[in-house]
Amino acid sequence: MDEDTCKLRVGQYVMHFVGYQPDSPSGPKEFCEDIPETGRTIVVLDYVDAELRDLPTEVRVIRDTATPPHRLDEVTLLHLPPKVYPTGSLNFELTFSEPGKFVGLVTVGGVEKFESRFPFSVGRSHSWLHLVLSVALITGGSIVLYRFAMRRRAKAAPAAH
Predict the structure, then answer these.
(1) Is 93 left (phi over 0), alpha (psi -120 to 50) or beta?
(2) Of 42, 46, 68, 76, which cross-links 20 as Cys (Cβ 3.0–4.6 Å)?
(3) Which position has the higher pLDDT, 131 or 10?
(4) What pTM was estimated for this model as a whole?
């Protein structure tokens, strides 16, 4: 569990987080960080700590803006009011119609509340990473070819004399 990259800490408690995009044009996708594409997305939260089964859990997904907390409803895409989930699992479905930056808010507890706030992006291409890798490969290949050509040339030069 220590190496689980899909865990969500809410105060002293831990949940396992996973998302699915079953209708993705490039095939079904599973993720636990940024959401690869826009479209229908299913999110599942499973309680790791059994104590969570007795505590109300609230979930909210908002657009990442500088909106003040008292105007949270204006940027809310999804809100699951506080509810006890005795099975230890909750899920929701949300359709992201456009790429962007978002924030998930998970609040757990009754009198004493704990909140986890996790930013994520949807459909944001990592094309800059592909560009950097392509440039690095081309540069590395060019250096290897240049050195190879220089060695062949150096070997051929003494034979000409």
Answers:
(1) beta
(2) 42
(3) 10
(4) 0.70
